[in-house]
Amino acid sequence: MNITNEQTPLQKKLDRIAEGIGKLGLLVAILTFIAIVISTLIKTIQDDKKDFDMTFVTAICNGLVIAITVVVVAVPEGLPLAVTISLAFSVAQMQKEENLVRKLQSSETMGNANEICTDKTGTLTQNKMTVQSAYLQDKILDGEVNPDVMQLQSAATIVQAVIMNCSAFIEPKRNNDGQITGEGDVTTGNVTEVGLINYLVKAGADAKA
User: Fold this and answer.
1) What pTM does this model have?
2) Number of domains in the chain
3) Looking at residues 42-51, what average pLDDT do you find?
4) Which candidate in 119, 138, 142, 206 is catalytic?
5) Is the pLDDT reported for residue 4 higher than 70?
6) If you write DSSP's letter for every residue of 65-81 in order, what string do you get?
7) Most-buried pick from 88, 93, 145, 209 (CB within 10 A)?
8) Which residues pair with 180 in a beta bridge?
9) Do 94 and 157 belong to one domain?
């Protein structure tokens, strides 16, 4: 809750544009007012019928109003609204493509992306680990289950090393009420250790004993 929202690159650019336009509008307004004042002075001095009366003051006030109008018109008040509407339209288009966007800034971020690197996370898997290959005694045993493991001289040592040093265990299958179903055994615990034990069991090791 204490984290402050930083401006996006587009918002920073819009602020710089608005500031630049505002400064330019102010400069033009000042020059316009000066031009009107000088023009009014020259006309008043050259015309003998005119004097520095209320007519002169009214002309100066009209010049000031014109200058203020230039400043007001120069400020791009509708620019942030137009950008927000554009981002909202982009979000609506993405939603039609079954892509839900929670923040309007996401459209801006994706618009600035040239390359996207992504990775498959655990939310897309079944959280089940299986041994794909084993390297034992200078041999690579490919496949999920390879009975040749038990034929190696170090098989007994490997089996004991895996089983005795893991927290996973084999138990009878149970239903939601905790009662044994009689449908065989199931290995539970750490998914990596479960994968190793299942590999040894299918290869012929008596892991349950």
Assistant:
1) 0.43
2) 2
3) 77
4) 119
5) no
6) HHHHHHHHHHS-THHHH
7) 145
8) 174
9) no
Residue 209 is assigned to a structural domain of this protein: no
Reply yes or no on whether the pLDDT at 143 is more than 70: no
Q: Are 44 and 50 in contact (CB under 8 A)?
A: yes
What would the two tokens of residue 168 be? 């996973």
Question: How many CB atoms neighbour CB 127 within 10 A?
Answer: 8
Which residues contact residue 33 at a Cβ distance below 8 angstroms, ignoring those fewer than 6 apart? 63, 64, 66, 67
Cα 17 to Cα 9: distance, rounded to the nearest angstrom: 12
Q: Burial-class residue 131 by CB neighbours within 10 Å (0-12, 13-18, 19+).
A: buried
pLDDT tens digits, 79-136: 778 888 888 888 888 888 888 888 777 777 777 788 888 776 656 667 888 888 888 7
> Which residue range forms the structural domain that includes residue 40?
9-111
Domain co-membership, 73 together with 167:
no
Q: What is the distance between the alpha carbons of residues 149 and 204, in angstroms, rounded to a whole number? A: 9
CA separation for the pair 39, 59 (Å, rounded): 10
In DSSP terms, which residues pair with 185 in a beta bridge?
Answer: 172
- Active site includes 148? no
